[in-house]
Amino acid sequence: MSGKLLEIKDLHVMYHTDLEDVYAVNGVDLELTTGETLGLVGETGAGKTTLALSILRLLPDRTGRITQGEISYNGRNLLELDKHTMAGIRGEEISMIFQDPMTALNPTQTVGQQIYEALMLHNGQHLSKKELWARVDSCLEMVGIPAARRKEYPHQFSGGMKQRVVIAIALCCEPSLLLADEPTTALDVTIQAQVLMMMKELRERLGTSMILITHDLGVVAQVCDHVGVMYAGEIIEYGSLEDVFENEKHHPYTTGLFGSIPKLDVETKRLSPIDGLMPDPTQKITGCSFASRCPHASDRCRREKPGLYREGNHQIKCFLYTGESGQEVSE
Amino acid sequence: MLPIILGVTLVVFTIMYFTPGSPGELLAGANPDQAVIDQINHELGFDQPFHVRYFNFLKGIVTKFDFGTSYTSQRPVLDEIMSRFPRTLTLAFFSMISTAVVGISIGILSAVKQYSLLDYASTVVSMFFSSMPSFWIGMMLLLWIAMNFSWFPINGVASWKGYLLPCAALTFCNAAPLMRLTRSAMLETIRSDYIRTARAKGALEKRVIWKHAFKNALLPVVTNIGNNFRALLGGSVITETVFVIPGLGSYVITAIRSKDVPVVMGCTLFMSATFLVVILLTDILYAYIDPRVKAKYMR
Q: Quick check: pTM over 0.90?
């Protein structure tokens, strides 16, 4: 179960357009062990999707650029691989579930063809056409779609069913790492629960590691082992589910994030949302990215980047805990 | 389709009715007697009221498939059309094909290699050609190519070689806008989510373009090609004049000048019917490309 599957070191991603430069990911460090599920939470625009796309190197061609850092998968740096090797990894070893099932499927191909393609591209065992189609059928049934529907087109499926097809495409080659980018956001709550349960089951059965990107903390609590909180392109807090959900010490942003969710057992008159907006991603930030919205912010927060505070596996990027030195502190 | 054809004939017939002049004046020779003119007009049925003439015209077609007789040549219009129509159709058909091939392939190429030298070059060239009228390109081709290389005939379509230059002229000016359209449709498709899905599956670029993007980008392009056929039929009127091809286009121009109503009507009918058939074919093709369109009309 252990062993590093994915290791991201100091990743910086930038979107460069004629009008402006957007700093989407600013120095992310991340580790994922085999079989682990990591939840990445954070508000819209925090760089979660960009992070996932950079792992697969699917950033928009001309605009998205990884400016710095390293992404190693099973000891290989993905950023240095050539196109063909990378294509071999996509779908086969690392696959991705996309956010919007409505547009993620090709409208002119049957769902069967789209699953078949993924299998056919990574046909290491040299299965015959017939065997591949049998695999397509079993994949569809795995996600709860009758195999007879493989001849149907995406427009004949409902949103939830389409998401199942997308999941089937992602899982059909039994990848060792699954990047799920808000797989349930576009779905209504009942379907959401079904899809999550299904993904959990499949994951356990296939032993897949997963990075689950979401802004739904409830979903994270249900399925994840570890949680990373992203803000303005940085992971500002990282730890096990218990660390982040129950521990005393939190990054002020995480506290704010949890404060924005109604609790039934605690009587509060109003929710306490975080004031203000995320900093402008076109500007490089000196100091802590959360300083402008932080109730505990000091002058120092605006000047210097906070170091990492560690307590066991729990990591927080905030001066509140790092103490005077401002350096990495571990207890 | 039938109401459309009826509408087209009615409109053209009305226009012909209101334009000044009569076949009598043109057929009676120089300085004719008014009586002679009236005599000729009467023989041709030109002096009858509008609704009677229009009704007779329709009756002839529906009951006997008779398109009338040409005022000038006194031969049945149907025969005249049949001897010319294949040439026009051949020209329009081959121009359509070569337009599609050139326009779509360069369009895709410049979309895939966006911002490359090839993209810029094809953009400039297509801008140039889309702002040139086809007859001008036709004349330039005659001037530069046909005049210098005796292999190309300067006029007529005695052999297949005669079709090459007019076809090229039509292709140049129709492929240019088609290329622009294909390029933008393709660019839009390449950026869509399902293309990203295809890439995430591990498909290589070539496969992504041909298996996923091509079919989706083709939809607006096919519509455009169908509509283009109309321009090709209409445009061939001018091109035929430039290249002196005895097709339907040059025939109808002469007929309009000489107030030869049955000929004009016959040609109009043929051209609009052909165009409607092409539009129908486009729609059917559409259903083959996009299963969503098919689903709308099939139960």
A: no
Rg from Cα positions in chain B = 24
ipTM over 0.85: no
Residue B216: closest CA among chain A residues belongs to which residue?
A108
Region of poorest pLDDT, from A260-264, B9-13, B278-282: A260-264
CB contact under 8 A, B201 and A117: yes
d(CA A57, CA A179): 12
Give the residue on A whose Cα is nearest the Cα of B115.
A62
Residue A272 scores a pLDDT above 80: no
B115 and A62 within 8 Å at the Cβ level: the answer is: yes
Taking an 8 Å cut-off on Cβ atoms, the answer to whether A62 and B289 are in contact is no
Give exposure, A128-149, as e/b (b: 16+ Cβ within 10 Å): eeeebbebbbebbebbebeeee
The answer to whether residues A57 and A64 touch, using CB atoms and an 8 Å cutoff, is: no
Q: Give how far the C-alpha of residue A206 lies from the chain's centroid of Cα atoms, to the nearest Å.
A: 19
Determine what percent of chain A is predicted with pLDDT higher than 70.
Answer: 93
Q: Count CB pairs under 8 A between chains A and B.
A: 79
> Among partner residues B197, B291, B292, which is closest to A98 by beta-carbon distance?
B197
| A91–chain B Cβ distance below 8 A for any pair | yes
| Cα B48–Cα B53–Cα B54 angle in degrees, nearest 5 | 150
B188: CB partners within 8 A, 6+ apart: B217
Closest Cα in chain B to A88: B202
Mean pLDDT of A298-312: 82
